[in-house]
């Protein structure tokens, strides 16, 4: 698969003097792109379908985004998923409660997870889209996890000396694996097991048992592999 240099011809760089650009039309096009990525996935989304959904002409799309890849990258990066902060997550008084509350944040649950599913195949094949996914989904979730761990530490739940940077990477990695590699939904039971058998013990137990943690993480990986038809590890 030949990959294009998206950054070299982004809409901002490609803009030419002339009639002033209608930013509201841009947003309508990007909204339509995200909707179709969720509904059809990258492979089945077409520029024609985006133009029809947005009520825009095909010439407008191609003038601003020369390919579907360019349009997809902009649709991901302009959504501002990273704007979600720890203040958006209710302070339940416990790390477990805070982590389970993340799923109750409506726009994180519906928009982010559904869009992740729509990008499954192209993330594996296109480095431009994969890089945008890394910035907007993985890094944003890792920062949110780190902030929630900091909040728990201030409450006195986390013993001194824990590597919170490392712990913060675990949930985004396993969630991405579940959604992108297996293409399966993040059902409540999976998330609860992730919190109860891996994240909370690793962060809060005085002497977390390495074998218990390994068993908990291994069970989650095995479950995801079985759903995806991946051979045993």
Automatic annotation (TrEMBL):
PROSITE patterns: HTH_TETR_1, HTH_TETR_2. It comes from the Bacteria. GO terms for molecular function: DNA-binding transcription factor activity; transcription cis-regulatory region binding. Keywords: DNA-binding, Transcription, Transcription regulation. Residues 23-83 form the HTH tetR-type domain. Residues 46-65 bind DNA. Residues 1-25 are annotated as: Disordered. It holds the Pfam family TetR_C_11. The keyword Transcription regulation applies. This is TetR/AcrR family transcriptional regulator.
């Amino acid at each position: 698969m030949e990959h294009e240099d998206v950054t070299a011809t982004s809409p901002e760089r490609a803009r030419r003097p002339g009639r002033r650009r209608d930013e509201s039309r841009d947003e309508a096009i990007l909204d339509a792109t995200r909707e179709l990525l969720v509904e059809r996935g990258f492979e089945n989304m077409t520029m024609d379908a985006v133009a029809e959904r947005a009520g825009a002409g095909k010439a407008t799309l191609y003038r601003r985004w020369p390919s579907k890849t360019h349009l997809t990258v902009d649709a991901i990066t302009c959504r501002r998923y990273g704007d979600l902060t720890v203040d958006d997550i209710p302070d339940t008084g416990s790390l477990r409660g805070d982590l389970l509350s993340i799923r109750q944040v409506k726009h994180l649950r519906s928009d982010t997870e559904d869009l992740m599913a729509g990008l499954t195949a192209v993330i594996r094949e296109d480095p431009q889209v994969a890089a945008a996914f890394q910035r907007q989904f993985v890094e944003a979730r890792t920062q949110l996890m780190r902030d929630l761990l900091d909040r728990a530490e201030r409450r006195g739940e986390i013993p001194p000396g824990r590597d919170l940077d490392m712990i913060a990477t675990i949930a985004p990695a396993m969630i991405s694996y579940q959604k992108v590699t297996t293409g399966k939904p993040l059902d409540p039971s999976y998330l609860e097991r992730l919190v109860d058998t891996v994240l909370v013990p690793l962060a809060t137990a005085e002497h977390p048992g390495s074998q218990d943690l390994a068993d908990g993480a291994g069970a989650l990986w095995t479950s995801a592999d079985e759903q995806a038809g991946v051979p045993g590890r």
